[in-house]
Amino acid sequence: MSMVQASAVNESEIRQWLEEVPDPEIPVVSLVDLGVIREIKRDGDTWLVNVAPTYSGCPATRIIHDDVRAKLYEKGLRPSDFQVVSVLSPPWSTDWISKSGRQKLADYGIAPPQPSGKPKACPQCGSSDLELVSQFGSTPCKASWRCRSCLEPFDYFKCI
Amino acid sequence: MSDDTLNKALFEFLCRMGDNTLVLGHRVSEWCGHAPVLEEDIALANMSLDLIGQTQLWLGLAGELEGAGRSADDLAYLRDAFDFRNLLLVELPNGDFGKTLMRQFLFDGFQSLILTELTRSSNERVKEIALKVKKEVTYHLERSSDLVVRLGDGNEESHRRMQQALNELWPYVGEMFIDEPEDKLLSEAAIAPLPSSLKARWETLMRPYFAQAKLNVPDEGYAHKGGKHGTHSEHLGFILAEMQFLQRAYPGSTW
Ligand SMILES: [Zn+2]
Predict the structure, then answer these.
(1) How close is the nearest chain B Cα to the Cα of A67, in Å?
(2) For A44, A146, B45, B132, which has the most beta carbons within 10 A of its beta carbon?
(3) Other beta carbons within 10 Å of B225
(4) What is the pLDDT of residues B4-61, one digit of tens each?
(5) β-pairing verdict for A110-111 and A153-157
(6) Is B49 within the bounds of a domain?
């Protein structure tokens, strides 16, 4: 693996690298799509990568930090060249999920978050005749819904 | 007032916030694998995760402010029952599913109100945590209120159980609104509200749900108290025995 100089890379390059890092629980979207990668800035000789936690207790948070570190290392930065920082404020919101991220979620079968607090359409058949099964689902960020038309259950990305 | 006095008061307050979410989170986690249906099992486990995650934030800040090098884990695993500052309500045994939900509802209502105030705290760190956590608690309250109404206004059996749960838990509600000396200091410094100032708002928030659930709200009556000072029921000791076992038996062990 070849080393790169920390001073030779720029913010948008790092952001591009992080687009290659999938969310550990919903691997169809990248950390950048998910909106958890916040400010990336230089502090002296170190790159600070600010990461926002999704839910306070999300077990993926620690893995996300490790995955960011691993990617930067894989791209040739030395561990001393960067620092991953957890930032609470402003709090992460589903509004930060990118447009392409929302599309990827829908294609994968997870209804993207809606301001109304409920899914717009069944990700399988597009029907809007839907019912809530449970406010929580397979991960802290999702709820369980069911389509009354095609009868398929599906995940809905909760809106917070 | 010296900075030191205020700092100590804030430490106490942060322990109350963190111990409430820690002990309740632990209680709720006891449902994992035992809930009446799979969806509820998953929901309870996720609620518990949120609560334990929030504990990290509150106790993490408490440890930082204290300046004695104690982490959130140290505070959670290495303090004794008399050092815990949680409300008695959250350490009560789960009872049936209805009682667990009723306790959650009573707590969520209080939590959502205190957090709303804390989002305007003069302390930036407290404010930051409150802004983050408020979103989760709003969702918890949506869920617990919805289920309390559905079960309260469900069939005869579910109604009977919810009414019984409310009757049994009601004497533990009053403790939420008792002002302690630390609360007065923090309220003067605009860091945290006086708990007593939340009481009327809590009633306004909760009563319509009780009415919808067709539940009779018991009279004011006697309030069990002591948790905020470390005088707990016998139940907390059993929780800690289980929760702290590993760190006590194998000090410093890590994953
Ligand atoms: Zn469908």
Answers:
(1) 18
(2) B132
(3) 16
(4) 999 999 999 999 999 999 999 999 999 999 999 998 999 999 999 999 999 999 999 9
(5) parallel
(6) yes
Same domain, residue pair A10 and A51: yes
Q: pLDDT band at B179, cuts 50/70/90? A: very high
Strand ranges (E), B96-180: none
* B133-163 tens-digit pLDDT: 999 999 999 999 999 999 999 999 999 999 9
Mean pLDDT of B107-132: 98
Closest CA to A156 of A115, A109, A104: A109
Phi-psi region of A76 (alpha: psi -120 to 50; beta: other; left: phi over 0): left
Nearest CA in chain A to B54: A56
pLDDT of B252 > 80? The answer is yes
> Is B52 in Cβ contact with A57 (below 8 Å)?
yes
Let me know if A3 is exposed, middle or buried by CB neighbors in 10 A (0-12, 13-18, 19+): exposed
- pLDDT tens-digit readout, A110-126: 999 998 889 999 999 99
All residues of chain A having their beta carbon less than 8 Å from the beta carbon of residue B133 are 56
| Residue A101 belongs to a domain | no
Domain boundaries, position A113: 109-157
Domain-embedded: residue B118? yes
In angstroms, the separation between the Cα of residue B114 and the nearest Cα of chain A is: 18
| Domain identity same for A90 and A122 | no
Pairwise CB contact (< 8 Å): A136 & B129: no
**B40 in contact with A, Cβ within 8 Å:** yes
Q: What is the dihedral of CA B56, B61, B66, B71, to 10 degrees?
A: 30
A121 close contact with B: CB closer than 8 A: no
Ligand 1 centroid to residue A103 C-alpha, Å = 17
Task: Establish if B154 touches chain A: CB-CB under 8 angstroms.
Answer: no
Residues A69 and A123 occupy one common structural domain: no
Domain containing residue B125: 3-249
Question: Same domain for A31 and A89?
Answer: yes
Contact A135 B43 (CB under 8 A): yes
As a whole number of angstroms, the distance between CA A65 and CA B165 comes to: 42
Mean pLDDT of all residues in B85-107: 98
Q: Is the pLDDT of residue A1 over 60?
A: no
pLDDT at B145: 98
Q: Is the pLDDT of residue B220 over 90?
A: no
CATH number for the domain that contains residue B61? 1.20.1260.10
Residue A8: pLDDT band (50, 70, 90) is: confident
